[in-house]
Amino acid sequence: MDNDELRHEVDQLLATAQEQIADLAKIQEKQAAMSTTASAADGMVKVTVDAHGNLVSTEIDEDYLDDFEFTELAEHVTEAAREATREAATKLAELFAPLNERSTSAMSSAPGIADIPDFTAMIGQLFELAKPETGVGAPNDVADDDPFNFPKVRG
């Protein structure tokens, strides 16, 4: 491979990296605003999580105990939370899919650069920015030890 071909590959990879960084900022804005709600117990228990699956809110219908036993409540909250977390993970993966596909495509279309370890590592680090975090998110607005942080009961 001559220098012109290598230079062309480097230019293409850098252009792709710049696009990735610009798109990443937009995606992170969408991610920050993203939430997912799931329900259980015939819709009487609703749980909302953020993009990372962190619990944002829990709602329990005031008529819940008319149809279900109190001992079932924890199971229903857990069921709704798990479903909301699964849906949030799917949404997050879909949000980041174009970036991940572009980075994979860019690296595979530049075989001459793959032989340059330092450059490959540097570009790989840039593309790592485009991957979603898993299981880690911003802390909730209300402290976990807040004794007045009760689930919402709606009527």
Detailed description of the structure:
- The chain is an alpha+beta fold and 155 residues long.
- It has helices at residues 3-33, 64-67, 73-108, 117-128; strands spanning 35-40, 45-50, 55-61, 152-154.
- Strands 1-2-3-4 form a four-stranded mixed sheet.
- A hairpin with a 4-residue loop joins strand 2 (45-50) and strand 3 (55-61).
- Helix 1 packs antiparallel against helix 3 (73-108).
- The longest helix has 36 residues, at 73-108.
- The chain is rod-shaped, with a radius of gyration of 22 Å.
> What is the level-2 CATH architecture name of the domain at 32-127 and 150-154?
2-Layer Sandwich
Largest sheet composition: 4 strands, mixed
Number of strands: 4
Proportion in β-strands: 5-15%
Structural class: alpha+beta
List the uncertain runs.
136-143
Relative helix content = 40-55%
In what order do the strands lie side by side in the largest sheet?
1-2-3-4
* CATH-defined superfamily of the domain at 32-127 and 150-154: Nucleoid-associated protein YbaB-like domain
Instruction: Specify the CATH class of the domain at 32-127 and 150-154.
Output: Alpha Beta
CATH topology of the domain at 32-127 and 150-154: Ybab, Chain: A
Organism: Mycolicibacterium insubricum
Pfam families: YbaB_DNA_bd
Protein name: DNA-binding protein
Keywords: DNA-binding
